[in-house]
Amino acid sequence: MPDNTAQKTSPSYRIAALDTDFILGDSTRGARFMLEYQKAEDSLRARGIVSTIVVFGSARVREGNPWYEAARAFARIASERGGALAEREAGRNHVIATGGGPGIMEAANRGATEAGALSIGLNITLPHEQEPNAWSTPDLTFRFHYFAMRKMHFAMRAAALVAFPGGFGTLDELFEVMTLVQTGKMPPVPIVLYDSAFWKSLLNLDTLREAGFIRPEDLSLFAYADTPEEAYARIVTGAGDAWEPAAKDSVQT
């Protein structure tokens, strides 16, 4: 019988789903993008996560820093009062979700965990590898390659956003959500900027209004807060009398 080793060892003979050269190739980028959506989505659904409170902020602050401690306290308050501890048939609401890394992200995951609640960490692969912090719920700790898909998961279930001081990544994520709300791609959600002095010194958004680049009412898309209690109150007030969860798939796709 002729030897068929060459045929059996050819890359073309590999099962497609098991062929890493194929799966990681240029032509299958769309499939990888879809898989990053589906893997996290399956886990979030399995845990009954209906809505989240997203917390952004710098990865560079450490325990003892006032912003770190404020994010930790805020996440604990939000987890205790917002419904993350309530186990309901309909699902779990207002679960803290962060970028999964150190700094403000760690603080928020830590505060939620200290309250006895679940919390989500949406990590990203970076040139200087980001390690997941030790406080996010293990089976709700994810790692993404694509920033776009990571941001989509942030937005999809967001019932509120709290942005603590941070760098380019924080600004990127903040303006992403503000743009989605401004353009109607996402229902209005409370957006809170923590530490009014920091944000007002960094961003003079009146310049955009005066130039006619945004509408005057766009400046009401967000509010400032200077204490964890005020941040939570801003969310509840901004969400209206009934703390309703964000609708599933509320971000238009």
Oligomer: single chain
Outline: globular
Structural class: alpha/beta
Distance separating the two termini:
55 Å
Task: Give the strand content.
Answer: 5-15%
Helix content bin: 40-55%
What's the alpha carbon Rg, rounded to whole Å? 21 Å
The secondary-structure element order is HHHEHEHEEHEHEHHEH
Number of strands: 7
Quote the average pLDDT. Answer: 92
Low-confidence stretches: none
Query: What's the number of helices?
Result: 10
Commentary on this structure:
The protein is an alpha/beta fold. The chain has ten helices and seven strands. It has helices spanning 5-8, 20-23, 29-46, 66-81, 104-114, 147-156, 168-182, 196-202, 206-210, 228-239, and strands spanning 52-56, 95-98, 119-124, 141-144, 158-163, 191-194, 223-225. It has a seven-stranded parallel beta sheet, with helices on both faces. Strand 2 (95-98), helix 5 and strand 3 (119-124) form a beta-alpha-beta unit. Helix 4 runs parallel beside helix 5 (104-114) and helix 4 (66-81) crosses helix 10 (228-239). The radius of gyration is 21 Å and the shape is globular. The model has no long low-confidence stretch (mean pLDDT 92).
List the helices and strands and how they pair.
Layout: H1 5-8, H2 20-23, H3 29-46, E1 52-56, H4 66-81, E2 95-98, H5 104-114, E3 119-124, E4 141-144, H6 147-156, E5 158-163, H7 168-182, E6 191-194, H8 196-202, H9 206-210, E7 223-225, H10 228-239
Parallel strand pairs: 1-2, 1-5, 2-3, 3-4, 5-6, 6-7
Helix pairs in contact: 3-6, 4-5, 4-10
